[in-house]
Design goal:
The protein is of the alpha/beta class and about 210 residues long. It is built from seven helices and seven strands, in the order ααααβββαβαββαβ. It has helices spanning about 5-10, 10-20, 25-35, 40-50, 95-110, 135-140, 155-165, and strands spanning about 55-60, 65-70, 75-85, 120-125, 145-150, 150-155, 200. A seven-stranded mixed beta sheet has the order 1-2-3-4-5-6-7, sandwiched between helices. A hairpin with a 5-residue loop joins strand 1 and strand 2. It is globular, with a radius of gyration of 17 Å. The relative contact order is 0.13. The model is unreliable at about 170-208 (pLDDT under 50).
Length: about 210
């Protein structure tokens, strides 16, 4: 939770309003009951990433007690979860069930937003370096993958391109000057010299 306290405390009211259509409680409310929710740095790193893009962050909990991080932005919905395992070439049934369950939850939450123009993205945060097949498989489905390595959060190559590449310039309907859509990201979290090729590192930063 280091460095996340101010996000959790100060943005709770705003998050509650934005997440209301989804019926998802805010991160702060869930952490008050489950203080160990973000104990794994992989999941905490995902929260930091979503906050860097100004997403409201909540937690959806299934009856089975499985939990999913839910990030809602102006035009994006992210549903992510922690995956323990995934280091072998053949994923275990548990890993495959987790991946499938994220897809279902993302689809069902999108249904709450009716016809809102929201792009849905599934995010798989591995607690350890996953097998390359488990990076390629979700990314080829246009989803996001991250993992913890050497105390830092790494992004898969396509995930990096999705989240760190500025959007194309959009022109207004009136034919006025083009307005660039710039990705909002806290560049102080990015390691300028990634330890692994085609990945992005995030350094922990304490915010007083």
């Amino acid at each position: 939770m280091e460095g996340l306290d101010w996000w959790v405390e100060l943005l709770d009211d705003r998050d509650e309003r934005r997440l209301a259509p989804l019926g998802v409680p805010t991160l702060r409310k869930v952490i008050a009951r489950r203080t160990s929710l973000l104990a794994d740095p992989s999941l905490a790193g995902l929260v930091r990433t979503l906050r860097s893009f100004d997403f409201a962050v909540g937690v959806h909990t299934e009856r089975s007690s499985a939990s999913y991080l839910v990030g809602l932005g102006e035009h994006g919905l992210v549903v992510g979860c922690l995956i323990r395992g995934g280091q072998s070439v053949q994923p275990t049934p548990t890993v495959l069930r987790t991946i499938a369950s994220v897809g279902w939850r993302a689809w069902s939450l999108k249904e709450h937003l009716s016809d809102a123009p929201v792009e849905v993205n599934q995010w798989f945060a591995f607690s350890r370096v996953p097998h390359p097949h488990l990076v390629r498989f979700p990314e080829e489905g246009d989803h996001s993958v991250s993992w913890l390595q050497g105390g830092q959060m790494e992004l898969g190559p396509r995930t990096r391109l999705r989240w760190l590449t500025p959007k194309p310039v959009r022109r207004s309907s009136a034919g006025a000057n083009p307005t660039p859509t710039v990705v909002k990201f806290d560049t102080t979290l990015i390691d300028e010299a990634p330890a692994v090729p085609e990945s992005v590192s995030f350094r922990r930063r304490r915010i007083d």
